[in-house]
Design a protein that fits this description.
Layout lengths: L7 E5 L4 H12 L3 E6 L15 H13 L4 E5 L5 H15 L4 E4 L15 H29 L2 E6 L12 H21 L4 E8 L14 H7 L8 H11 L9 H12 L10 E4 L10
Parallel strand pairs: 1-2, 1-4, 2-3, 4-5, 5-6, 6-7
This protein binds nicotinamide-adenine-dinucleotide.
């Protein structure tokens, strides 16, 4: 028997990376899955590839191979109509949405505030913060009517401290924590629990990703002209008390599984850090 038998999870930003891992983890525990991703490979200003439709189809097949029902939809988290369509699609396919996982997020060019373009600022806030609002807004009427549901939002350790050269991302991740707190306060009486996970660097092996690209190596090694991956990884290790460069996607998935399961039935309004000790020295 799985912890999520008979439930339905809508996972936004799930073609690849952590979203794929979350879908597989929840499916292994019995959830039926609805995947949503915008499937844009070349994102303006993003120093690593976005997801493709093929990757979304691959994730769908991987969930189905676990014996679970899984459907997918191409949709943009920034658009109210796409999120409404996603909620309706999930309801028409499965009749319910028990868990909403808001995972879609982007990290674009690094720079001090005066170096960030207004367009980049808007895109990051639109995707990472307003996108969460759009997804919650689309799903909440259904959860309220059923008087049950969980919402789990992927924040970041960049939503717990200030880091130089990524104010747009920083602000978006602090923002989702504030949004989560409001949601948990407003909808607790409807039996809806809302929490965040806050990962530190997430490993992707050799695959180019948010933490594996030349731009981020430069962010970690501003004193080195052309830093290598090894040099950046060394800095990443030093940053974490547990001495690792980052956590694996599955570590974040397990935290999400805990938060959406009945094991966490009285946990709402919280941020669960998956950060290899990085938060140990934080007072917030
Ligand atoms: N990678 C890290 O080190 C790290 C650390 C902390 C937090 N996070 C957060 O974790 C989440 C997942 O990141 P990841 O590392 O798996 O990155 P990723 O790029 O592998 O996954 C993000 C997914 O979101 C999708 N997406 C992006 N914009 C979208 C949009 N407008 N509409 C719908 N889908 C969209 C992408 O196509 C992709 O599939 C993000 O919210 C990110 O900010 C990542």
């Amino acid at each position: 028997m799985g912890k999520l038998d008979g439930s339905v999870a809508l996972v936004i930003g799930s073609a690849k990376g952590q979203g794929r891992s979350h879908a597989l983890t929840l499916a292994r525990e019995g959830a039926e899955i609805v995947l949503v991703d915008n499937c844009v490979v070349d994102v303006e200003g993003q120093p690593y590839p976005g997801a493709s439709k093929e990757q979304l189809d691959e994730t769908t097949a991987m969930v189905q191979a676990l014996g679970r029902r899984c459907v997918s939809m191409v949709g943009d988290v920034r658009l109210a109509e796409d999120m409404e369509r996603a909620a309706q699609y999930a309801l028409s396919e499965f009749g319910a949405i028990d868990h909403l996982i808001c995972n879609a997020g982007i990290l674009l060019r690094f720079g001090k505030v005066h170096e960030l373009s207004p367009d980049q600022w808007r895109t990051v806030i639109d995707t990472n913060l307003t996108g969460v609002f759009m997804a919650c807004r689309a799903v909440l009427p259904h959860m309220v009517a059923r008087r049950r549901g969980t919402i789990t939002i992927t924040a970041s350790t960049a939503g717990r401290s200030g880091f130089p050269n990524l104010a747009d991302y920083n602000a978006s991740k602090w923002g989702v924590i504030g949004l989560m707190k409001s949601l948990a306060s407003e909808y607790g009486s409807f039996g809806i629990r809302v929490n965040c996970v806050a990962p530190s660097n997430v490993n992707s092996g050799k695959r180019p990703s948010m933490t594996n690209n030349e731009a981020i190596f430069g962010l970690f090694c501003p004193d080195i002209a052309e830093p290598t991956r090894d040099q950046a990884v060394e800095r990443m290790r030093l940053m974490h008390p547990l001495g690792v460069e980052g956590v694996d996607p599955e570590d974040v998935s397990k935290a999400i599984l805990y938060l959406v399961s009945d094991d966490a039935r009285y946990i709402s309004g919280e941020v669960l850090h998956v950060a290899a000790g990085l938060m140990a020295s934080n007072s917030a």
